[in-house]
């Protein structure tokens, strides 16, 4: 046997065992299913918004066409402009924006310290306290609205933005406390203790170390609170008459309105929530471990 044949025989004997590609195929299959699920959820949430926008921005002729086109035809802002010029829409929009922003501020001022206490301190009844927080969300809004309306009448804040902010804050506080508690738990205690060792006070360590790390979670809590306040309609309709929020105004004034006005109202109700979420998008993506584009 020559030297070349001996070398070939040695290489064949040293060949690597076949690679098991099963785990890689399973991982790709799972990833594909996750992407399909994400696309399905996006379509489930996005298609209704698109259809409402399409109807709101269509002319009367295009809106009454049958069968309707899935693509924009006969775009017009006449209905939107007529809706915006309707009586009470401008003040109601201002009341909704003011109520949402003030509710976010008040819920964070009250809920974030409570969440920090749940995350950092062990005290008797902590688990029961969290359970009670969840139970408060089980109460239907109509159960809270009637007693609160009577209370607001007695205290002189009935039919004001303040009343709307208070009832929306009461609705948002349980989730705000639980979300912020989960965020503060994820902040390493070591970095806070290091700040205390280097001379920071307890509040200074919270402001300079804990708070910047918790900003993405606080942004997520803010988005949830603002959307809850913006979409809530029953409580606002019960405790206000002349200072209604936009959903309450739409509910009460457009019941007898043409179909085009209803689509315009629904489209304008969606826009501010989407804008607020877009503004908070960078913090949300950072919280989920993805860099914002």
TrEMBL record:
GO BP, sorted A to Z: transmembrane transport
Compartments in which it is found: Cell membrane
Chief subcellular location: membrane
Membrane topology: Multi-pass membrane protein
Keywords for this protein: Cell membrane, Membrane, Transmembrane, Transmembrane helix, Transport
PROSITE patterns assigned: ABC_TM1 (PS50928)
Compositional bias ranges of the Basic and acidic residues kind: 1-11
Highest taxon, organism lineage: Bacteria
Transmembrane feature ranges: 36-57, 97-119, 131-153, 165-188, 209-230, 259-279
Chain ranges of the ABC transmembrane type-1 domain: 93-280
Region named Disordered: 1-22
S-adenosyl-L-methionine in keyword set: no
InterPro entries: BP-dep_ABC_trans_perm, MetI-like, MetI-like_sf
Keyword Cell membrane: yes
One cellular component term from this protein's GO annotations in UniProt: plasma membrane
Gene3D superfamilies documented for this protein: MetI-like
Family, similarity comment: Belongs to the binding-protein-dependent transport system permease family.
PANTHER family, alphabetized: INNER MEMBRANE ABC TRANSPORTER PERMEASE PROTEIN YCJP, MALTOSE TRANSPORT SYSTEM PERMEASE-RELATED
Name by which UniProt lists this protein: Sugar ABC transporter permease
Organism of provenance: Streptomyces antimycoticus
């Amino acid at each position: 046997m020559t030297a070349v044949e001996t070398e070939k025989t040695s290489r064949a004997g040293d060949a690597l065992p076949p690679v098991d590609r099963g785990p890689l195929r399973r991982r790709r299959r799972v990833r594909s299913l996750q992407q399909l699920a994400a696309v399905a959820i996006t379509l489930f949430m996005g298609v209704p918004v698109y259809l409402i926008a399409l109807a709101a921005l269509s002319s009367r002729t295009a809106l009454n066409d049958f069968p309707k086109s899935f693509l924009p035809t006969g775009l017009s802002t006449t209905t939107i402009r007529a809706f915006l010029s309707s009586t009470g829409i401008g003040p109601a929009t201002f009341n909704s924006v003011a109520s949402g922003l003030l509710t976010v501020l008040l819920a964070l001022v009250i809920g974030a310290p409570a969440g920090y206490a749940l995350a950092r301190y062990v005290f008797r009844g902590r688990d029961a306290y969290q359970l009670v927080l969840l139970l408060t969300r089980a109460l239907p809004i109509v159960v809270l609205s009637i007693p609160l309306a009577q209370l607001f009448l007695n205290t002189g804040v009935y039919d004001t933005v303040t009343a709307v902010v208070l009832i929306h804050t009461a609705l948002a506080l349980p989730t705000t406390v639980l979300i912020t508690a989960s965020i503060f738990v994820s902040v390493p205690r070591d970095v806070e203790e290091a700040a205390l060792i280097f001379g920071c006070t307890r509040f200074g360590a919270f402001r300079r170390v804990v708070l910047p790390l918790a900003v993405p979670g606080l942004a997520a809590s803010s988005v949830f609170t603002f959307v809850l306040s913006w979409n809530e309609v029953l409580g606002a309709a019960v405790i206000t008459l002349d200072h209604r929020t936009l959903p309450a105004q739409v509910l009460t004034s457009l019941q007898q309105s043409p179909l085009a006005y209803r689509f315009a109202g629904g489209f304008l109700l969606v826009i501010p929530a989407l804008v607020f979420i877009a503004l908070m998008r960078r913090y949300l993506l950072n919280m989920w471990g993805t860099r914002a584009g």
